[in-house]
Specification:
InterPro entries (chain B): ABC2_TM, ABC2_TM_bact-type
Distance between the termini of chain A: 25 Å
Protein name (chain B): Transport permease protein
Helix content of chain B: over 70%
Radius of gyration of chain B: 23 Å
Subcellular location (chain B): Cell inner membrane; Cell membrane
Oligomer: heterodimer
Membrane topology (chain B): Multi-pass membrane protein
Largest sheet of chain B: none
Order of helices and strands of chain A: EHEEHEEHHHEHEHEEH
Shape of chain B: elongated
Strand content of chain A: 25-35%
Number of helices of chain A: 8
Structural class of chain A: alpha/beta
CATH topology of chain A: Rossmann fold
Keywords (chain B): Cell inner membrane, Cell membrane, Membrane, Transmembrane, Transmembrane helix, Transport
Largest interface: A-B, 43 and 42 residues
Chain lengths: ~260, ~300
């Protein structure tokens, strides 16, 4: 479900000159082999045949993100948005070029990826907080706030497998937005939960913007990004085709 | 400098230069490498707790299973080898002898097997969120140690009942054995985990090694029987240099060799004494273990950047 456009707050981000992320000549190639086995490997070595086709997900991408900016990444499926986000988070490494950054980075790459259904809500909050880089003291201090934001107080000691999908996503999102990183990576998560909760999430994003956090957001919700971002980058087939004013960027993508 | 103009991509260092680091720049995914398990103790503890919880979900006996499995294994081996093949006749305290070897092989099998599957098993995390991937094999080792404790307890009680008393020698032998075993197995485990991310055949191969391990070290029979058969050949040396052989012998020294019945019978049967008493080839075992650990760590560190895309 996409958020109501009138609910999306105006961007509260205040861009500064301090560079936070530098992406320099980043190229990432994927090989499209799905199964690996020794047999295939031996045969391909014997026949001197290339084992797999390759796919260029990112092709010489340059991008600098400044402190306080909210940068949107848009593009059609397969344009390399998520790959770019993953190279910033450290999950993927570029084949050429490099990514460097300042400060702590936390990704909402996939909400709830670190959740385990057999643990209680409380245990999952601790496990995920730690995975996202928080210390025990930080989690202790923010625990009540996290639970209150997710609105599932009475179920916090229930195993997550008994949660409804909405409850699950709310708790996962709540942990993620309370990790307080310097750089926030957000991938297609603003379509979480019901309308009131979405409004709350957007409000939280706005708070983070006002607090001077740097954000990189991937989404297909073009109108929402247009309002939230200070700058939008358009990707096509792994290259940057536009970088600048949000309204222009959305128009560029629609025209292509 | 001309090279830089022609090929600017190749000249960029992956890690920020010193000047850049001074300004606070770092590369994403740059971490403390093999020191991660020490730096990230809190996360490691949570991962261990998760694994223990998940292992026994919906099981009524829970942790009791870690007593039941070795008990059944022990009874089967004792009846088949001790009684039917009459190995217990020539070996005083054969039950303790057998069980002290079994716990070694069980710990080896569990650490090696779990570590091998630790990256592929946590694929959902590895592929989506950055966290130091060294933590996965390490947490599976700690889980294996938790399961090892009850077995160790049973072994100590059994040894006490058959006339064994703890001594400084047995403590040193036990400590050496544990260190060699854990360092060696973690090295193998990290190596196999890294390879298993690329080729799933590795985990089947590891199962095979674990299955054979019981028979390739003096767990069920005595090492003097091996020397009688292949003594003097290169195979005998390879057999002796197998770190598992060294560890199993150290455990025998720790829990069996200096117990009453064995000491009493020693004058009649000098083969009861362990070769190179009391600690045998411990230095060779330690060397091999450390070398394996270094190789495992280097291979793991080199390939961890590719884990996310290989899963």
């Amino acid at each position: 479900m996409s958020p109501n456009i009138q609910d999306v707050p105006e961007s509260a981000a205040v861009p500064t000159d301090r560079e936070m992320v530098r992406i320099q000549h980043v190229t990432k190639e994927f090989s499209l082999r799905h199964d690996h086995s020794f047999k295939e490997l031996v045969f391909s070595a014997l026949q001197k045949k290339k084992l797999s086709d390759t796919f260029l997900a990112l092709d010489d991408v340059d991008l600098t993100v400044h402190a306080g900016e909210t940068v949107g990444l848009i593009g059609f499926n397969g344009s390399g948005k998520s790959t770019l986000l993953k190279t910033i988070s450290g999950v993927l490494f570029p084949d050429h070029g490099r990514v460097i950054l300042r400060g702590r980075v936390a990704g909402l790459i996939e909400v709830g990826a670190g959740f385990h259904p057999d643990l209680s809500g409380r245990e999952n909050v601790y496990l995920n907080g730690a995975i996202l880089g928080m210390s025990r003291e930080q989690i202790d201090a923010r625990f009540d706030e996290i639970v209150a934001f997710s609105e599932i107080e009475e179920f916090i000691d229930t195993d997550v497998k008994y949660y409804s999908s909405g409850m699950f996503l709310r708790l996962a999102f709540s942990v993620a937005v309370h990790t307080e990183p310097d750089i926030f990576l957000v991938d297609e998560i603003l379509s979480v939960g019901d309308e009131p909760f979405q409004r709350k999430c957007l409000e939280r994003i706005r708070e983070l913007q006002a607090a001077g956090r740097t954000m990189v957001v991937v989404s297909h919700e073009l109108e929402m990004l247009e309002k939230l971002c200070t700058r939008i980058v358009v990707l096509r087939k792994g290259t940057v085709i536009y970088d600048g004013d949000p309204t222009e960027a959305v128009a560029t993508l629609r025209a292509s | 400098m001309t090279a830089e103009a022609v090929e600017p991509r190749a000249s960029l260092p992956l890690v920020p230069t010193r000047a850049e680091q001074a300004q606070g720049w770092r590369a994403p995914g740059q971490d403390a490498g093999w020191l991660n398990p020490i730096r990230e103790r809190f996360l490691l503890r949570l991962l261990v707790r998760k694994e223990l919880r998940v292992r026994y979900r919906g099981s009524m006996l829970g942790m009791l299973w870690s007593y039941v499995k070795p008990a059944v294994q022990f009874i089967v081996f004792y009846i088949a080898l001790g009684v039917f093949l009459q190995l217990s006749k020539g070996t005083p305290g054969y039950a303790v002898y057998l069980f002290s070897g079994i716990v070694v092989i069980n710990l080896f099998g569990e650490v090696f097997g779990n570590a091998t599957r630790s990256i592929t098993g946590n694929g959902a995390l590895v592929a989506k969120i950055y966290l130091p991937s060294q933590l996965f094999p390490w947490s599976s080792m700690i889980v294996a140690l938790v399961h090892f404790l009850p077995q160790l307890l049973v072994l100590v009680v059994g040894a006490l009942l058959s006339g064994w008393l703890p001594s400084p020698t047995s403590m040193v032998a036990f400590g050496l054995g544990m260190v060699i075993l854990l360092v060696f197995t973690m090295g193998l485990g990290m190596l196999a985990a890294a390879l298993n991310a690329a080729f799933r055949d590795v985990e089947n191969f590891v199962d095979l090694i674990v299955m054979v391990a019981t028979w390739l070290s003096p767990v069920l029979y005595r090492i003097s029987m091996v020397e009688e058969s292949i003594g003097g050949t290169i195979w005998w040396w390879l057999y002796q240099l197998n770190p598992l052989t060294i560890v199993v012998e150290l455990f025998h020294v720790a829990f069996w060799r200096y117990s009453g019945p064995v000491v009493d019978k020693l004058p009649m049967d000098p083969t009861l004494a362990t070769p190179g008493e009391p600690f045998g080839l411990w230095w060779a075992g330690l060397l091999i273990a450390v070398a394996t650990f270094v190789i495992g760590t280097v291979v793991f560190e080199r390939s961890k950047r590719r884990f996310a895309q290989e899963l």
